[in-house]
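Quality-control log, excerpt.
Job 1 of 2 completed; input and output follow.
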Amino acid sequence: MQVILGLLYHFIGGAASGSFYIPYNKVKKWSWESYWIVGGIFSWLLVPPLGAWLTAPGYLEILANAETSTLFYTYLMGLLWGIGGLTFGLSMRYLGLSLGMAIALGYCSAFGTLIPPIFYEIFGSQGNEKTISEIFSTMSGQVTLFGVFLCLVGIAICGKAGTMKEQEMPAEQKKESIKEFNFSKGLLVATFSGILSAFMAFGYATGKPIAEATVETGIDPLWQNNPVLVVILLGGLTTNFIWCIYLNFKNKSGSDYTNKQTPLLRNYFFSALAGITWYLQFFFYGMGESLFAQSGVGFTSWTLHMAFIIIISNLWGIYLKEWKGASRKTMFAIILGISTVILSTVVVGFGNYLAE
């Protein structure tokens, strides 16, 4: 039952992440940096404390009593993740939902899933975290790692479909659905984003003492990661806020926030909606990760989260006609890639079932 619920929570979180950029498309006459930081203030500053207060009412006292080193390293992981999140938004801007997420999350899935158990193998674990050798030594671990491998194969196929689209479609047609389409620039920022976005998984690891302290106060383990999120996302806010304000000055777009020549109410509403949707991915991810961790397979959470995001974002990409005009061969490739990712989630789920 825990595995089924965990999969459900990861699917909801993945759906939120795969859909969060859609409201930004409704923002009119604002620069990218303006609507990105307005959404970010909701997703990283306003909503996380509310979510923690509703589910773990005494979280402020828990954070006040946490070790300084725990708070620092959790914040630092959020700071680094924030750089990945910043370039993640640029990936969507230059590549579109389907291709941008496939490439960025391919790196993110691999680094976020495999590096923590390798780290625990080298430096040791302080709790029940699995090392890479422990994972390989069990049938459930081997099945789950095969699922991770399938996920990466599916992501690679999605990326290949994107390059095929780049080669066969004229620039004018590609920019009908993605106004600022730029494959080379998008590939660079997506790669950078995918690597640094994996630090969210490390943030959960460094914030483990906060999660444990939350459970010790009598809070349901399902909500233990919400106080950790408050710290991680403050780090993410720091990097994004600094960069976006810099761009406001550089591009002279600071007037966006009060310019009555733009649909201000509409822009604030859709930016806020995008930011809240962004936060919900981690709210539900934390719930799924808590259930998987209780079964000893928490390391698989990141891969599942990435896989569900890719599934949803590619479906959105098809719906928004980002692949309009692509050849049948290219469409077959993107469908094969999505199907492989879906299969990987089934394999990872079966691995979790064996462990439980």
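Job 2 of 2 completed; input and output follow.
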Amino acid sequence: MTARSILVTGAGSGIGAGIAAALAAEGHHLVVTDLDPAAAARVAAAIAAAGHSAEGHALDVGSEASVDALPAALSRPVDVLVNNAGLQHVAPLEEFPMAKWDLLVQVMLTGTARVTRALLPGMRERGFGRIVNIGSIHALVASRYKSAYVAAKHGLVGFSKVLALETADADITINTVCPSYVRTPLVDAQIADQARSNGISEERVVSEIMLRPMPKGVFIGVDELAGITAFLLSAPARNITGQCIVVDGGWTAQ
């Protein structure tokens, strides 16, 4: 595979950090970005210490000024964008602070559009681009107490379809990877929130809410998401665009 320059948002921990490390190990240059500049720097330094290529940058996907300033700060143009930045808040709608609701949508939907818009002209100019959105099973189905997250992730699928049509005249693709639960610090926080909202133990949240809908009954691995992302960058995937790549252990087969 041709070595590419890959920018990952929200890569200071969790899924983003795992995808960045895995793609760097395949010979790509990684631009590790995060709202927390220290976290981005740590992940980039770990990748470099392993003998691979990376740079770390602060990026607030909710800020137009932050996004617009980023391209000039990079060591090279971006070929591939992985929109991964995200957060969660679990509460019934009546108890959901609207400022928090707006924040989730701003980061996961509007932020995705903002970063994509900033990098898309360069992809067009160079004649190549790959955009991979890290969605969720909640881009396809719903769960109680997650109105903002589900709305943002459903919107991400529609956004991807529109961009697939807008970029069909170039060697650019955009797809959304939709995993069910991946065991990360974000999910660990959700377990506690779900336990509180549902009035049950954290163990029951895992067994009865998170894993029960999945016939395979196991959490998705970050390595799976990294491998799927790598495939979407490859030549055999050049006509896969506007699609949801569902990684749900059989959840939606029922």
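Post-run check on job 2. The chain has a mean pLDDT of 96.
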